[in-house]
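Sequence and structure are kept together here, with a separate record for every protein. An example record follows, reproduced without changes.
>
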Amino acid sequence: MIDIKLQKITKQKLSNYVLVYSGNYDKMFNEILLYRTSQLQKAIKLMKLDFAYFEKKYSMTSEKFYDLFESGKLGDENTDFYHWSGEYEIYKDYQKEIKYLIL
């Protein structure tokens, strides 16, 4: 059992929302988690399109790029690199989150 401490207003919103599910908290939470998973998967698909563009432009995989960028071997003059590295970090975070959501 999970013991969650909620603010009064959050608890009230949750209680109201569960009425949509006829009191079935399990169904409600599963649908919320499924929705979050699908949103993460959509975002990852879009990121992969960006990665494909950068990978073609710079002739390296995103993983290789990130390793080089983080080690300082690519310099810091290129704005594409900041965009690419930031998006790659978010991509890794989203993948990690999906692992927790999908058992």
In short: Residues 36-101 form one domain. The chain is about 75% helix and 0% strand. The chain has a mean pLDDT of 94.
